[in-house]
Amino acid sequence: MLDSFAVVCFFARQRGWEDVRARLREEASARRKALLSLINLGECYYVAALRAGAERARHLVQLLDRMPVEVVGVDRPLALRAAEIKADYPISYADAFCVATAEAREARVMTGDPEFKSVEELVDVEWLPGNR
User: Fold this and answer.
1) Residue-wise pLDDT tens digits, 85-99
2) Cα–Cα distance between 115 and 124 in angstroms, integer?
3) Total domain count, the chain
4) Which of 53, 83, 105, 127 has the greatest count of CB atoms below 10 A from its CB?
């Protein structure tokens, strides 16, 4: 499970991007896909749009569509679970969707976002280097 932090890290080639690349290659070679919440996809888009403009943000989404990444949609139970997580933990609402999706899919979250320290009791977190 990729958090938007990991996706942005990968595309911006920030510290730890090689770990994200390795995870994507691993998933592809095993004929699996890394998971990304639809809400976190939107978060990736707006971060890219703020940093580099809407055209680059659209390009990022097009690239993600060609990668071994499954964008996981949101239904009512997932939205309510994300709301519960947001109510109980000091984490952003978008990150709560990542956690709720990881719980539902029994997936480990790859991130460097320090907010995820508060939810390590809910999901396994794979920390990008220098971000734990």
Assistant:
1) 999 999 999 999 999
2) 13
3) 1
4) 127
